[in-house]
Structure formats: structure tokens, C-alpha cells
Amino acid sequence: MPAITGNEYIQRIDRLNTTIWHNGEKISGRKSEHALFKGVIKAQAALYDLQHDKDKSSVMTFKSPDSGNRIGTSYLMPASKEDLKKRSNMIQEWAKLSSGMLGRSPDYMNTVLMSLAASTDLLNDKENCFPENLFTFYKYARENDLSFTHTFVNPQVNRSPFYMEDEEEPIAAKIIAETNDGLIIKGAKLLATQGGITDELLVFSPGGVNDKKHAFAFSIPSDTDGLSFISRESFYLGDSQYNYPLSSRFEEMDTIVVFDSVVIPWERVFFYKNIPTANSFQSKSAFRPFTLHQVLNRRIIKTGFFLELAKDIIQTIDIGDYAHVHEKMAEIIVTYESLKALLLKAETNAAIDDFGLMRPEMASLQSANSLFSKMYPRIIEIIQLLGASGLVTIPREADFTSEIRPALDQYLQSAKLDAKERVKLFRLAWDATMSPFGTRQTQYERFFFGNPSTFSTGLYRSYFS
Questions:
Q1: How far apart (Å, rounded) are the C-alpha atoms in residues 259 and 176?
Q2: Which own/partner pairs from 413-418 qualify as long-range (CB within 8 Å, at least 24 positions apart)?
Q3: Cβ pair 114, 76 in contact under 8 A
Q4: Which domains does the chain have, with CATH numbers?
Q5: Would you say 357 and 407 are in contact if contact means Cβ atoms under 8 Å apart?
Q6: Residues 32-39: contacts with CB within 8 Å, 24+ apart?
């Protein structure tokens, strides 16, 4: 089938009989109508619809080499610099619809699957490795425009570098049996963003495995028997896009994934009980360069959003003549321009890798990630400093339809906007930086690729290798 529409995406997610727990209760009914998910599902439906926009379809889709259908560009294995640039254009078009707030927009996970499938040579002739399963599944996902979440983080029981789990009852998900039907997995994994509202759950070992039972990679439908998702507290605070302009639309639920003796069919297993492969596949595959490339494109859009937001605050309350304001804005500008320059360098210096992919330059991508993980919290702080008390004194939409409206109009007006429009702008700044949604975004960007110090160590070692 060709690239799906937003309505097809919604119908597919609603048909899933997924087990999702929130606040001690199992969620029932259509997920697209549930307060926890309706905002983000609607937002992602708009992304899928963009694939069918007559002015954007040539960017958002490409012709399938198998079916001839127009399918999502996020599944494209780039063989040229033109292909790589097309991927960038697609990512940025999707990111614009959320101002970069959707860290798990479909193109991220599609990129993950594409990069792993392109690297199947690493699995050839290895014990308990099934490269044909991985590539066949990639083509199935590509041709059906599947949506994904993924999980690979173990529960934070003990973060000591020498900790080995010795519990009789599994904590971290592991293989407890092998049957004719497939592997049996029991235990938990952390941080499946959008868990329970995607077609599939992709699971793989990220490295650091010292027990064969924890070495595996597979993908299964999100409503597989025995699979459940436990959500955190929701940061959705209401439907009003005036009060909650970002969190009402882009709140991505994070979940714990519990495997209760889940059967993983053999045709969905990519590798298992192979420690060297589990510890090296992610790092040796095309995973890192292409996920870094996707994330950098999204972060460029996100940084541009904050630059415009800061400019609007400055103009609205007329603080543009102060030197400290210029200095703060310069920090955002330098970050924004640096990210764009690093993307250009990464694509200009791209070269064909061992898998036949046009791979962007890693040093540029790694540098961009290190820069952004440090600068994003600073950008948030700058917005808070520019907004000052204005980010605290922000009435809600209902106040402007009450009898107190004349007082608000008088006391909350600004140099350039009336009171209602000024408050609307400052509520946007609050939702981006100070609401539960905004603070989660800061933590999310800090640790998107794990511990920033560990990532910096990787950059240092690879740069001088």
C-alpha cells in the first residue's frame, strides 16, 4: 500500500487492542479520543497527511523499488548526496508542524529501522543471527508505513558499572525460554516514548551485555499478548490551545514496557543469545549516523522556534535596547547557525559507507549533538530570563471572557500587543519552558542519546582514532 493518510493512521491505532496502564487503571476505548493521547495522535495524523500534500509529496515520499507505490521518504536508504538532502528536507518539513517538539515523530523510528536493515551484512553467518528476517521486516514496514516506538534501556535498579542482576524473578527483560513458536521474554524495559500508540515495538540490545539471555533484537505488534505499557503521569493539562499551545498537541507519553512471558515469533527475531553481536551491532551499524542526522534536522527547527519566540518576547515588551538582551540572543543565534553549519558540513562530507549508504560525516553530527545537549537548557533559561515575571502572571483563556476582562486589558497590555495576545505569547513561552511538558522537553533533549559525558567520550575517541 502507498504512504498512509492521517485518517488511516488513526484508524489503525484505534484498532489495536493495546494494554496501557495509567494512574492505576487500564485504558479502554479509542485511544484517539482519550485525553492522554488525542493531542499527539492528531498531531501525527497531520504528519501523515503531509505525505499527500500535492506541493510536498515529492519531498515526503519516494517510489518504492518493490511495489512502485509512493512510500515515506523516512524509509529511504540514501545512495547519493541528493538522497541525503531529500531526507533532510523531509525531516524538517515534518518537524515544522510541531516546532521540533515531537522527539518520536514517525521519521525517527523509521530511520532507526532503515539504518539497521541496511546493516544486515554484520549479521551474516553469525550464530543465532537472522539478517533475512530484519531486511524482510524493514520492507514490510516500509510498504505498509508502520509506526514504531522502541525500548532498550534496562530498569535503573543499580547503575554500578559492575552490577549483574541475580534475581530469580527477572527485572530487566530477558529470554526465559526457547520454543517452536519463538523466544519467550519476561521482565521490563524503560522509556518507550509513545508506548502503546504505535503499530510496533522495536526492541534491541544497546551494548554492555554480559549475559546471553539479555542479548536480542526483535519487533512485535504493540498489542501482542502479555505485553503492557505503564505510563508516567500525563503532562496534558487541557484542550485549550490558548492555555496549553504545545502540551495540548504534542505531549508524548513515556512508558515502562512489561513483558509477561511474551512470545516473540522466530520470523520477528533479528538476533538472540549472541553477546558480541548484541554489544557491537548498534555501534558498527548505520544506526548512529542516521539517527544523529534525523535528530539534528529536528533540532534545527526547534532552535529556530525558540529564536523566534525570544524575538517576539523582546519586541512585545520592548526590551531590545538592552545589552544583556543582545548577549542572550547572540547565544541562541550562534547555536542556531552552528547547527545549520554542522548539518551542511555533515552532508557535504558524506561518503558511501560499507553498506552502500551515503553516510553523513560523523564528527559534525557528534559535535552538533554535544553542543545542543548543553545549549538547550541554556536556551530555556534565556527564555525564562527574558520573560521574567511575565511568565508567572499569565491568566487563562477563561479570564478573558469574564467580568475581570477590563482589568486584564488595562494591566497586562504590552508595548506592541493587547493583553490577550500578550498573554497568549507568554503562555506559549511558559508551556515551552516551565510547564511539566516544557521541563520534560529539557530532560529529554539532555539525555536523548544517553549520558552527555559518555557521548563526549565517544566523540573524543572517534575524532582522534
A1: 11
A2: 414/316, 414/317, 414/318, 415/316, 415/317, 415/318, 416/315, 416/316, 416/317, 416/318, 417/316
A3: yes
A4: 6-144 (1.10.3140.10), 148-278 (2.40.110.10), 286-463 (1.20.140.10)
A5: no
A6: 35/234, 35/236, 36/231, 36/234, 36/236, 36/251, 36/253, 37/197, 37/253, 39/236, 39/239, 39/247, 39/248, 39/249, 39/250, 39/251
- Alpha carbons 137 and 145: distance in angstroms, whole number: 12
For CA atoms 250, 454, 108, 147, give the dihedral sign: negative
Which tens digit of pLDDT belongs to each residue from 119-139?
999 999 999 999 999 999 999
The H or E element spanning position 110 is helix 106-117
The CA-based angle 43-142-123, given to 5 degrees, is 125
Residues near 326 by Cβ (< 8 Å), separated by ≥ 6?
A: none
DSSP run (H or E) holding 220? strand 216-221
Cell numbers 554542522 correspond to 342
Report phi then psi at 11, rounded to 5. -60, -40
Secondary structure letter of residue 129 according to DSSP:
B
Task: Give the Cβ contact number of residue 214 at 10 Å.
Answer: 20
Ordered alpha helix ranges (H), 206-286: 247-250, 275-284
In sequence order, what DSSP letters do the residues of 427-459 get, joined into one string? HHHHHHHTSHHHHHHHHHHHTTTS-HHHHHHHH
The number of angstroms, rounded, from the C-alpha of 444 to the middle of its chain's C-alpha atoms is: 9
Could you give the count of Cα atoms lying within 13 Å of 174 in the half-sphere of its Cβ? 19
CA 197 – CA 9 distance, rounded (Å): 10
8 A C-beta contact, residue 269 and residue 133: yes
Segment 262-287 mean pLDDT: 97
Coil vs helix vs strand at 367:
helix
Amino acid at 436: P
Rounded distance, CA 80 to CA 100, Å?
26
Q: Which of 217, 76, 101, 215 is nearest to 150 (CA)?
A: 217
Q: How many CB atoms lie within 10 A of CB 58?
A: 13
Contact 455, 369 (CB under 8 A): yes
Q: What is the pTM of this model?
A: 0.96
Cell of 193: 516514548
- For the stretch 86-128, pLDDT in tens is 999 999 999 999 999 999 999 999 999 999 999 999 999 999 9
Of the chain, the end-to-end C-alpha distance in Å amounts to 45
Cβ-contact 41, 13 below 8 angstroms: yes
Distance CA 258, CA 88 (A): 35
